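Following the same procedure, sequence and fold were stored together, as reproduced here:

>
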Amino acid sequence: AKADVKYLVDGTDFTAYNVYVSSSDGVVCKPAIKDLLSDEWSNTHGTVYDLSQVYYKEATLQLRCFIEANGYSDFISKATGFLAKFADAEEHTLVVRAGTSSSYKQCSFTVLCKDSVDIDKEWNSKTFVGTFTLKLTVPHPAVPSGSWSGASSADEVQYSIDGSLFTSYGVYVQASSGITTIPQIKEPLTYNWGTANGLDYHQDGVRYKERTIQLKCLVEANSFPDLLNKTMAFFALLTKNRTLRLKIVAGGTVLVYEVICKDEVRLVPDFSHQNKCVGTFTLRLTEPEPVKRVL
């Protein structure tokens, strides 16, 4: 699967410098949302967010790379030549292309390299090898968009967003937290009268803070292009200017939450599985108003 993935900077393949990417983080990413306008009243449950205008923070890409050379002189030549592509303060085009020349999927990013790059060198009897992590900033990240049509699965526990089953995108939930947790109680309104001892609490019932739900997910695909297709289509479900309906069905129990995805979601691909490509990510969702209402 690794051989089917090409990385190019400004049209030049990394392999022109004998640089190879062994792992990546953030190639598929739902960026974090910038701080939203919100109100948190003591006499109401949860938090009210203004979702009419949603803007996203810059994103980061991390590429774990290694470079092979025939000797120290060759290593210096290749390393400096490659790093010179990112050494200025200009924006560059990074392309990640997966698949064959006749059928491929690619992602394109406008990136900056703001961080230093340290190369760990190792010498053996045949080659001179260096390893390094290339951390790139995406100043204006694209919001994932797209669609995916897949077969649904009648699992014992089903997760869906706005009616779309996770499993139809090849996504499975390995672990979850916050689903049945009682949210924290808000601080009640209090009055500190100068003519009375202590504090006077406004006692018309407790009010709860927003709920946080965390889902640790795994996505399975037949190849890296298939993994990109499925994950980008799934992440597109999370980029709506409104709340999302998360529904969990476990046997005869149905749990429903109106949530938003404020945090960044990053795919971490794993090529170690034979005959398939697997990725993992953690989905952190916020339920602004955790008390259920019958609509």
